[in-house]
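Good morning,

Both structures are done.
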Amino acid sequence: MLLKIIGAIIVIWLAFAVLGWIFKVLGTLLVVAAVVTLIGIGYAALKGKSGQRQIRP
């Protein structure tokens, strides 16, 4: 009986450890995606302004 309780505690602890790792990885990926998106927006804004020409009649 004691081994079953200890086993259940270990399984629950492992489940929480895996869930914590998953959330940590997802958080890191969200930060990286936000930085890449901001860099891409900045690059597109700079490239777009330099490539535009005014049409003068």
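Second structure follows.
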Amino acid sequence: MVGSQHHYRFFNVNNVLFDIPSNVYDDRTVEGWFENIVREGRKLDEWVIFSIPDKSLTITHTAASQLCSRMPFLKSYGCLGFLLLATHTNAKIFHHSLKSTSSNFDIKISESMEELCRSAESMLGREGNLNIFNRYS
């Protein structure tokens, strides 16, 4: 099915690597996602992943556990944290999986885009770089 294929779309804004995935958070595709995110992140010294999945996001408990347990390894590539914009249901699945994740890697899940933008700025120590909500130009 064409609609069920997974895709990765990444773009960088001030060392925030925006990740717009389609159908990638399942058991079979977590490895491919990691390979692609590392390929993009290696281009930066310090960076944060800000994942904004399309409406296709559903995640299994095993995929969430696999993803969360692998996240701390991204530190060796300069990644400071992972931010995920998620619905209440998917956020609960991730939060359950985070209980077994290393506490030295910052992972935040929220339904608030503004909250996640502020978290990205804070992780990078660059307040205001993503202040798209209060910018008047």
